TrEMBL record:
It comes from Psychrosphaera aquimarina. A divalent metal cation binds at H34, D36, H68, D177. Substrate binds at S9, H68, G144, F145, G146, G147, D177, G178, G179, G199, S200. This is Ribulose-phosphate 3-epimerase. It comes from the Bacteria.
Length: 221
């Protein structure tokens, strides 16, 4: 299996001091930065665009930036984020008219590519493109907001995606996004995930360093 990675979602950070917030969680041991892009069209909320991604790069942040596009359509945003220094770009298949074309675009631009599955999106969409993917992002809440509760049936979905990947002999990253916390992270790992997006369970905690340590303690147990 792949090494466990915690990707803190900056959606729950203090935007007025974003650079410092990101440096704090990276210093605390998190390896990636999860970057939630919302457009008030594909999801009923609005966050930030590629300029904020460039700003983090210009601020000296070198850690992988894991862009999660909750926008429709996706292709123009893929181009902008690749230029802005994204490391990986994931999008929702429902938001692209030509999924294969969007996947190819991400790869052509030199980024890792992921597909995102909403809670009710069947995993069958992966069957036609898993060979092309570096990552599958499984939503364990409905996209749009931080701080929601983990939907328990996501565990079974993670298992089914891991089984599908194994069937294809593909050691892709399986990332889980929504309601991940120190109490459920072990179960999520045991179901087959290796990448853990955490928003409120890190940024909304009094002692973030300790919150990150507790999560890694569970993962490495
Ligand atoms: C939801 C976002 C998530 C969210 C996770 O649409 O994709 O990344 O910020 O936040 P928590 O961990 O608070 O559920
Ligand atoms: Zn996300």
């Amino acid at each position: 299996y792949n090494k466990p990675i915690i990707a803190p979602s900056i959606l729950s950070a203090d935007f007025a001091k974003l650079g410092d917030e990101v440096n704090e969680v990276l210093a605390g041991g998190c390896q990636w930065v999860h970057f939630d892009v919302m457009d008030n069209h594909y999801v009923p909320n609005l966050t930030f665009g590629s300029m904020i991604c460039s700003a983090l790069r210009e601020h000296g942040i070198t850690a992988p930036i894991d862009v999660h596009l909750m926008v429709e359509p996706v292709d123009t945003m893929i181009e902008q984020f690749a230029k802005a220094g994204a490391t990986s770009i994931s999008f929702h298949p429902e938001a692209s008219k030509h999924i294969h074309r969007s996947i190819s675009l991400v790869k052509q631009l030199g980024c890792q590519v992921g597909l995102v599955l909403n809670p009710a999106t069947p995993i069958t969409v992966l069957e036609e493109c898993i060979e092309e993917l570096d990552m599958v992002l499984i939503m364990s809440v409905n996209p749009g907001f931080g701080g929601q509760s983990f939907i328990p049936s996501s565990l079974d979905k993670i298992k089914r995606v891991r089984a599908l990947a194994l069937k294809h002999d593909k050691n892709i990253r399986i990332s889980v996004d929504g309601g991940v916390n120190q109490n459920n992270i072990k179960q999520i790992q045991q179901a087959g995930a290796d990448t853990f997006v955490m928003g409120s369970a890190i940024f909304n905690q009094e002692n973030r360093k300790q919150a990150i340590e507790q999560a890694f303690l569970q993962l490495n147990d």
